[in-house]
Amino acid sequence: MTVETIDATKLEAFMGRAVTDLAAAESSAATYLGDRLGLYRAMASGQQMTAGELAALTGTHERLVLEWLRNQAVGGYVEHEGGRFRLPPEHAAALADEESPYFLGGFVEIIAAVWADAGLLEEAFRGDGAIPWGAHDPRLYRGVERFYGATYRSSLVQAWLPALDGVTARLEAGATVADIGCGYGLSTTVMATAFPRSTFVGYDIHSASLDAARDRAHQAGVLDRVRYEERAAIDVPPQGFDLACFFDALHDMGDPVGAAAAARRALAEDGVLMVVEPRAGDRLEDNVGPVSRTYYAGSTFLCTPSALAQDGQHALGAQAGPAALTGVLHAAGFSRVRVAAETPFNLVLEARV
Hints:
Elements: H1 8-36, H2 39-42, H3 51-58, H4 62-74, E1 79-81, E2 84-86, H5 89-95, H6 105-116, H7 118-126, H8 139-160, H9 167-173, E3 176-180, H10 186-194, E4 199-204, H11 207-220, E5 226-230, E6 241-247, H12 256-266, E7 267-278, H13 290-309, H14 321-331, E8 336-342, E9 346-352
Parallel strand pairs: 3-4, 3-6, 4-5, 6-7
Antiparallel strand pairs: 1-2, 7-9, 8-9
């Protein structure tokens, strides 16, 4: 390629996009620090403050805080006027309020873990592609809990379970539930808190996550109705569960058909399988935009390597789409599959034998 063959207009447009992306990527480290150091939380009141006032509130270095605030101001994250800075309430909902459904703190923690794993990822690309889930930087697991937590707390009981025919009534009366690939157990705890007559079992292959899950259940006061077992999805035993769930986990598994088939065997005859997955269309062309771009990146660095580390027969990836997911569930022995609910970030599928 020579300079003469390059379209200067296209090059300029691409450079503008690439530099914007790189500026955002570097600034995500500032967002991570704002979360870790409590800078956003200290500004959550919406009051204007100087760098010195913010540094005093958070026990941080004033000169570094000033430069951090300048980065945040030129990026549009905080407002600036006459040397004083303010975090608007709309931005605080995303940056300072961990209970908000818009909270992004977990997302930047995941990004920090991915960067920390850069060497591991390079080895995977040059090798067999596999990275066991437990091999990542520890910030990943906490970040995943925080990232998904906002959505699960606001949608799981309020919208997703009611979208499944008759499931909420069964949970209210007293049902048995399997949470497969439960991680830190946030989804399990949310359901157990909402349905005190039901009992729950969480399964995962990562022992450190299960330790955290037990601690979360204890803190929530539901440990008497929740237990956790270190077990692969394909090894979930037949227990006659009324409900089995995969929360953003089926696509991480090396044998998703086998995992779904094990869930089918674990269910009662009239049991229901709920599969929550990242929202996606069925074609690459349907998945253009920042959400899918984010999911494809996460799939490259986390989900697909995890599946390949489990003797992956079929690494779905995080943008499988409803057709591929339905095909997996049909192959696993479910005859009735439907998309029960959709959000900008998730698909919720209901499957029955």
